[in-house]
Design a protein that fits this description.
Blueprint: E1 3-8, H1 14-24, H2 30-38, E2 44-47, H3 53-58, H4 62-75, E3 80-84, E4 87-89, H5 91-116
Antiparallel strand pairs: 1-2, 1-3, 3-4
Length: 117
Amino acid sequence: MNLVQLKIQKDASLASTIKILREFDSSLTISEIRQKIENSDFAITFDLNHYDVVEELQGVDRKLLFRDMIRKLCKAGAQVSVYLNGETASLEQLDNRLNTMHEIAREVEEDIDRESE
């Protein structure tokens, strides 16, 4: 499993933090996000192995959208702590994991293309 969880420290940028999180996952309510941040719980959890056929057909890459959301949070001044499979991780470690997954997917596609010729 490849779970990424984010903890966000409560600060003055709470409104913009909530807005950014809801843009990524609109199923989260404002009060739910606020409560998680205030209780120092994981504000959001994302499975890097997430796969949705419709998103695939539309060319949507949720992993890239997730990473972009983290960039927006940091830019907005949020203090973000990243956890990979329950362990504290740096953004560099997350980026390395994402790059590795992207490279593997690309290689698999190339192998499939080669075999179908």
